[in-house]
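Hello,

Our lab assistant flagged a job as stuck in the queue for most of the afternoon. It eventually completed. Since we weren't sure the result was trustworthy after the delay, we are filing this so someone can double-check. Below is the sequence as submitted and the structure that was eventually returned. Let us know if re-running is recommended.
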Amino acid sequence: MRNSPLVLGAAIWLAAGFMVVGSAYTVCGRTLRPTTTIRIAAPEGHSLSRGDMVFLATDAGLRQVGEVAAAAGEGVDLAIDPQVASELGDAVATCWQTPLSAEETVSALLPPDIQGRVAGHISLMWQDRGDEIVDAWKPVATGLATEYIGLVGDDLEAAVRSRSDEVRRIGEKHLMRAGEDWPLIQQRLLPILREHLTPVLSRLAGDAISDAPKAGVAWDVARGAASGDYDAVYSRLLDWLSEYVADMPEEDRRELGQAVRATLEAIGRDKPLMECLQGMLRRLRDDAELAGLAADAWREAVVENPRTAAFLRDRIVNDPAVRQEVYRTIELLGPTMRSVLAEALFDRNGATRPEVVHFVRSVALGRRLAWVTLRAEDGR
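-- returned structure --
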């Protein structure tokens, strides 16, 4: 199951009573000599320090084999068991630091075979009860999402509007870059539109014009010309257009949908056009300034919005319907989660995995934790 590590990680945190987020990074280590010292090249920003634990990754789990002897800059010395050092030879060292995401927690603490068995438990459960769980939560989630969007929608709009100058400046930058691509887009896109979409839109537009309230619009235009106020024209057109679209015959809807699908498929087959459009999207995605602006607006309108806390408290945490659905889901997942936690928390002898206990206790007490795991390059 593709997302099973994430689900397993969530199960571990459910047992501990909290969730943590963060990062891990992998580096290569090499034995310089058959002694108790191994030097690894740790990336910039690591939080390893003298005394942090070093584990050996085995099929049965993590086994402590030493500690960090020195951590100056990017060079980190590990003092480990001489026998382990001689057996490792070339090795891969993975440096971890809290906070960790759920998926990283799984990778950091559990052997691959345990992860596989847990994934099997979750996969079987989802095959058996997945549709039932999704069907039960779908109306609840849809209703809550709709209600919440209505609650903070104006705040989000206001947060974006307050940054309109920055949005406009960033938008102009991307429009200038898009202008360089426009000749290619025009050359490749217009023939596709003419072939697949234009004929259908032309016919539908002709039908719409024939049905439009011309007399009323003409009268509003005349009055607007006299007063300089064309709001009545726009209002009448928008009202009519919304009614026209709502009452569009099913045959016209089907024809328009087929034309749009044919257009999108033709665009997808045009490699130069797709590369150009994907490049535009990548530039937007990778624009750090735009991402920061969006994050600031989101934080102001959603994360720090007192309405969010009230909504979570009143409509989710304290809502009887949501609570009842949570209890029902827990009952459905209960047997599987017990199997998952048994695999994750206990070793083959039935003893609690010491690395899991140490990790959970340290994070629960608010201690920042860093450690290193070693494994032989051939996976021994």
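-- support follow-up --
The delay was a queue issue, not a problem with the job. The result is valid. The first strand starts at residue 23 and ends at 30. The chain has a mean pLDDT of 79.
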